[in-house]
Design a protein that fits this description.
By secondary structure, the protein is mostly helical. The chain folds into 2 domains: 18-98, Double Stranded RNA Binding Domain, CATH 3.30.160.250; 100-141. 50% of the residues lie in helices and 11% in strands. The chain is built from 6 helices and 3 strands.
């Protein structure tokens, strides 16, 4: 991979570099979108607080205070959204914008429901529906 990267022009190398800045317009748009995303914040005995996104379950960060955690998690959203915009992809719509009027019903045993509710609580979800929706969608996206 390193040999292949060296053969690329300097311009293409910069475009592929992870630590380069985003174009100002992409960064501005990413900040607008990321500001609308929902952060799930959990106290953590080792880190202080741990935050992740409802729309981006794998965009996360931590902080010693809730404010620091929210700020750092929001920046993780900005980077994820900016990367998607740069690649011409459409970032997920903020949860508050999406009208959820479709319903899916499933039947569970009491034990299955208990296990899913425990997993939802452990990951900071208030309810089983949000947990199941986010987990299922993350597995197919």
């Amino acid at each position: 991979m390193l040999k292949q990267l060296k053969k690329l022009s300097v311009k293409k190398q910069k475009k592929l570099a992870i630590d380069r800045p985003f174009a100002p317009e992409i960064l501005r748009r990413a900040r607008e979108i990321a500001e609308q995303y929902t952060i799930i914040l959990q106290p953590d005995p080792d880190l202080g607080y741990f935050g992740r996104g409802l729309e981006f379950p794998y965009a996360m960060d931590d902080g010693k205070t809730p404010d620091e955690c929210v700020r750092k998690t929001r920046e993780a959203f900005v980077a994820a959204v900016a990367t998607m915009l740069e690649k011409g992809q459409i970032p997920p719509a903020p949860a508050v914008e999406q009208r959820r009027d479709e319903q899916v019903n499933i039947r569970l045993t009491p034990e299955e429901k208990f296990l899913l509710e425990e997993a939802a609580r452990a990951k900071g979800y208030r309810g089983l529906s949000d947990f199941m929706r986010a987990t299922s969608l993350a597995s197919v996206r």
